[in-house]
From TrEMBL:
Top-rank taxon: Bacteria
Keywords assigned by UniProt, alphabetized: Oxidoreductase
Name of the featured protein: Gfo/Idh/MocA family oxidoreductase
Pfam family, one: GFO_IDH_MocA_C3
Ranges for domain Gfo/Idh/MocA-like oxidoreductase N-terminal: 7-130
PANTHER family hit by this protein: BCDNA.GH03377
UniProt entry tagged with the keyword 4Fe-4S: no
Listed InterPro entries: Gfo/Idh/MocA-like_OxRdtase_N, Gfo/Idh/MocA_oxidrdct_glycsds, GFO_IDH_MocA-like_dom, NAD(P)-bd_dom_sf
Domain GFO/IDH/MocA-like oxidoreductase: start-end pairs: 141-271
Keyword Ribonucleoprotein: no
Length: 381
């Protein structure tokens, strides 16, 4: 008899790791038709930290040694540690044949990420990355509209993730502000979500130009003032292979109301995707009465108002439910974000940063990928 739960280990019990655990409980409480997640083990950086103390309240086994997981009876691992720490748990999962759920990006380094994707592919593992906007009800509905063809050809788009978490210059240094650990700033942290969502809705990027800025170039660290080595803000113009053109703006130094939104203008209507709100797509059409029927896998159904929490938590819950369902062999009728998809989004992020460093030079994605020995499936078609 097939078990109705998945035995999972967690690597990293900081903020995002706790969000993953909380989200998995939400999908159980809301009665989503997906296997539950049994959090069996956790790996923390230091057993003497507050995070380790908290982890002991949730997990039956807590360690600071990744190799100790080898003896645990796991089916999957959730990698929620800092970007530069993903490789070791990823390699262990490949060695053990565990399914992999990983935070984005899968690595701080594009070459390392490419090798990780190849290893997972050769091992034929179930993989998924927390590019959770793919599970937003409005994104799923927007894809239905675009696939129906009723709105005609997509012409332009505008996508924004404008957050203010690092506007305060007194906020201390963290690994997210160091390129060697994170692989990028706002472009990698926020932009990768938008690049992945655009891949899902509009296909691959043909070429791009970008401007990037670091407005707060130093922060207080444990040993005094340290340089910030990533971007705070970026704006990029992307031309897709199918001809659609648009802009992506990301910021971690925004002020006032944060903006998480995407608009796609088509020949016969406009799709408004409110990423910051947990609701469906808003469609304005030239023809009255136009509609598209929506029907998707049970694990993708939106939460009812009685159980819905924040948009972020809801999307993580749906993503984890989809992952658990896929481990048990169920199909999910949207393209879920695998490690290969995450590699594609990360490659665009690196191309944006390259253009920004070069003062806005045009970057061809085909040439960029060839130069880096990287060819995600969406770009191989």
């Amino acid at each position: 008899m097939q078990e109705d739960f998945v035995r999972m280990g967690l690597h990293g019990y900081g903020y995002i790791g706790r969000i993953h655990v909380l989200a998995s409980q939400l999908h159980i409480a809301a009665g989503q038709t997906a296997p539950s997640i049994n959090w069996e083990s956790a790996v923390v950086r230091d057993l003497g930290t507050a995070a380790a103390k908290q982890a002991r309240r949730v997990f039956p086994f807590v360690t600071d040694d990744i190799s100790a997981l080898s003896e645990r009876n796991l089916e999957a691992i959730d990698i929620a540690s800092p970007n530069h720490a993903h490789l070791a748990p990823f390699q262990l999962a490949v060695e053990k044949g565990w399914s992999i759920y990983c935070e984005k990006p899968i690595s701080h380094d594009l070459s390392e990420a490419t090798e990780m994707v190849e290893a997972a592919s050769q091992a034929d593992l179930v993989t998924q990355v927390a590019l959770v906007y793919r599970f937003h009800p409005a994104v799923i509905e927007a894809r239905d509209w675009l696939l129906s063809g009723k709105l005609g050809r997509p012409l332009t788009f505008r996508a924004e993730l404008l957050h203010g978490g690092y506007l305060n210059p007194d906020r201390p240094m963290s690994w997210r502000l160091q390129n060697a650990a994170s692989g990028g700033g706002a472009v990698m942290d926020l932009g990768i979500h938008l690049f992945d969502t655009l891949h899902m809705l509009l296909g691959p990027v043909d070429h791009l130009t970008a401007t990037t800025r670091t407005f707060i170039d130093s922060r207080r660290g444990p040993h005094g003032t340290e340089p910030v080595t990533v971007d705070d803000w970026a704006s990029a113009t992307l031309t897709m292979r199918q001809g659609t053109v648009g802009t992506v703006e990301v910021s971690r130094v925004h002020y006032g109301r944060e903006r998480d939104v995407m608009d796609i203008v088509c020949e016969r209507g406009v799709l408004h995707i409110p990423l910051e709100r947990y609701e469906g797509v808003s469609v304005t059409t030239l023809d009255d009465g136009m509609s598209v029927p929506v029907s998707h896998s049970p694990s993708l159904q939106p939460f009812s108002p009685k159980y819905a929490q924040s948009t972020l938590l809801n999307l993580h819950a749906t993503g984890l439910a989809a992952f658990a369902s896929r481990i048990r062999g169920a199909s999910v009728d949207i393209p879920v974000p695998t490690v290969d998809d995450a590699l594609a989004g990360q490659a665009v992020a690196h191309a944006v940063m390259e253009s920004g460093r070069a003062g806005g030079d045009r970057v061809s994605m085909d040439r960029f990928l060839a130069a880096h020995g990287c060819l995600p499936r969406i770009y191989a078609r």
